[in-house]
Amino acid sequence: MNMRLIFLLCGLLLGLASCQREADLIYCSTRNGFLSDFLARHAAPIDSFTYTADSTNTFTSRRGTVLTIPPAAFRHANGSIVPTVQLEFREVLNRGDMVLSGTPTAAYNMLIESGGMFLLRSLTPSVELNNGAEIEIRNAVPTATSTTSGMRTFLSDTTTVPGQFTWSLSPDSTAVIRSGNSLVTRTSYLAQYRVNWLNCDRFVYANSTAPVQVQPQGLSTTGQAETQVYVLFNSLNAALRAYPTSSNSLADWETADAPANLSLTAVALQYYDGKFYYGTQTGTTGTSTPLRPVLTEMSEEAIAEAIRKL
Predict the structure, then answer these.
(1) For residues 254 and 210, what is the distance between their CA atoms, to the nearest angstrom?
(2) How far apart are CA 60 and CA 137, in angstroms?
(3) Is residue 69 within 8 Å of residue 135, measured between CB atoms?
(4) What is the pTM of this model?
(5) Are the beta carbons of 209 and 259 closer than 8 angstroms?
C-alpha cells in the first residue's frame, strides 16, 4: 500500500470519528457545524429497544412513556416475519425539548399544540410494519399542554417546504385517546432510515392570525455565524421556528402564522468565532412591533439549562 493511500485512509477515518448520529441526522464537527453539534448533544435523549416477534412487547422509556407492539409486527418486503428488530425511540414533551431537538409545531402554515412527539424507527434493514399491526404509545399528558381536545396523529413533513421541519396529518390519522392523565396514540406507520416522527397534536384555530416578527439584537451577520430563532407560546405546548425574510440579511426573521393575543417568548441562538450567544424576549402575538431579543455570550451548559426551563 503506497503512502498516499495510507494518508487518504487515515483522513477518512478521522473524518468518520468526528461524526455522531443523533435522531434523524448525522452531525459532523465542521467549521460551520458547531450549533448543530450543540443541539445534538442536548436534544431529548434516545432509548434503544430490541423487539422479538414471538409475543407482545412492552417497553418503557426513561421518561415513562410506554410502547406496546404486538407479536409478528414486522416483516420483510417478501412478507416473511422479522424475528428481531432494533428500535430507537425519542420523545419531545415540552417547549425546551422542541428547541433543542429541532421539532417546532407547525402544520399547513398553522400553529398546532403538542401532547407529545415521538421518534420511532427501525435500525434493522428492510423492515416494514406487517399488515394490521398497530403500535401503541401511551404517555403522560405534558404539563404545558393546555387541552387534549381534538388531538390527532401527525407525521413529520420535510417535503412541503424543503429544509424546514413541519407536520402533516398521518395517512392513518385517528383521534388521540385520553385515558386519565395519559394520552394513547396508535399508529400503523413506520418508515425506514429517514425522518420518522409521530406527533399527538391539535390545530390552534383563531379568527386572526399573522406571522411573528423577530429582530435579534447583537447578531453577527458574517457567513461564518450559525443562527437559529424560535418563538415559544407560553400558554401552549407549542413552538414555531423563525426564518430570515431575506437570503441576504439576518436582521429580520419570521414564523408561520400564529393566532393573535397569545403570550410568547422569542429565543435566539448563535455560534460565532468559538463562542455561543443566547437571548430571549417576551411579548404578545398580533402586535406590529417585532420582538428584539438581545444576544449575550454564555456557556454551552448555561444555554442548554436556560432552554430546558422555557
Answers:
(1) 10
(2) 10
(3) yes
(4) 0.85
(5) yes
